[in-house]
């Protein structure tokens, strides 16, 4: 192990990847803003209970993926493995129930102890949106439509398919749970070890199993749609009708369940075929019991999270980078004057890079390499005359201009 490498599953993000990830976040904030969402930044770590209770002890995240440790004061804390629980905790802590619905957007690093591979890391980044308050299906439509709009604006319209399902209300879910237990118990010998355990803790999660043997059994398992009560069916019908009206294409995927305990009714995932096994780029659903589980009042919610790394790999947005202006002072006095001129230009909004080493030819080569349009050369002779030399690197022309005329001379 080399101590000079980042820890397993973590990475340094720079260059084009950093630009792509920023573009995803910027687009997210703009799109969610257009739906009335406001910023909420929660701490990167919380008391472990905040995640343990709502996500469920038996969930993969809680049982094997959390970064949990005791801090120096003896408090048990966990690096956030997702946003929703922390956002709901913040909703309760700050008394936000006075003003419903709450539309909250967040983004930042998330931590899960997973086996690293392309598109799967131990520290990764999410964009996250939560709508807290509304109990009716129209809001599920808003949330899914917002996700679709974001993906379209990221240029991913033809790269993703929306898988949509319902998990029903508590009653429907209990009926379905019984049906699954009966079915899988009859095939217990063929189930993976994990799924045998899930049979007791949360049988719905067997449908989510990545084990090949389990998948064969899952193919013939009973369907949720056969166990929905009237209310749950009506709720789902409204979601589907709303999405059709909003022009959001979807597939009803009966096998879709979400990995976490707290979902009810709507569950959805936007899946791509372009990232191998790491195909889910954005996912979410409704979580009506979550806030109560955390100790708050009975308030419903619906939300989603997207993986910024995966979205950045797929977006067709080419982030615009301002072309820099290169400032090339050729002597001591010129260097000092260049500080002042560069500040003036930056105040006008220019990106200015001062290149103070090597001969002029080398500096101009670096300026071209950095895609600069203009190079401003300050020699001692020009300085005395109150002039600078402006080189237009695109046109191959050059001009002497006074200090005052510089800003006007470097307009692209
Ligand atoms: P997966 O099935 O890929 O494990 P998940 O169901 O665990 O995903 P969610 O908890 O719904 O994922 O998180 C939302 C999004 O975060 C995912 O759709 C994905 O884009 C991204 N994501 C989840 N885990 C990772 C990870 N370890 N590395 C990078 N991105 C991730
Ligand atoms: Mg996962």
Describe this structure in words.
The strands form three sheets. Strands 1-5-6-11-10-9-7-8 form an eight-stranded mixed β-sheet, sandwiched between helices. The protein has 15 helices and 16 strands. The chain is an alpha+beta fold and 412 residues long. The protein is 38% helix and 22% strand. A hairpin with a 4-residue loop joins strand 15 and strand 16. The longest helix is centred in the N-terminal third of the chain and has 19 residues, at 15-33. It has two domains: 15-169 and 229-314, BirA Bifunctional Protein, domain 2, CATH 3.30.930.10; 325-409, Anticodon-binding domain (Rossmann fold, 3-Layer(aba) Sandwich). Adenosine-5'-triphosphate binds at residues 82, 112, 114, 119-121, 124, 126, 259, 278, 280-283, 305-307, 309-310.
| Distinct ligands, ions and cofactors found in the model | adenosine-5'-triphosphate, magnesium ion
Helix tally equals 15
Poorly predicted ranges (pLDDT <50, ≥5 residues)? none
Report the CATH superfamily of the largest domain: Bira Bifunctional Protein, Domain 2
Mean pLDDT: 93
Beta-strand segment tally: 16
Secondary-structure content class: alpha+beta
Widest sheet: strand ordering: 1-5-6-11-10-9-7-8
Oligomer: single chain
The proportion of residues forming helix, as a percent range, comes to 25-40%
CATH class of the largest domain: Alpha Beta
What is the C-alpha radius of gyration, as a whole number of Å? 28 Å
**Envelope shape:** elongated
CATH-scheme architecture of the largest domain: 2-Layer Sandwich
> Could you give a short account of the major beta sheet?
8 strands, mixed
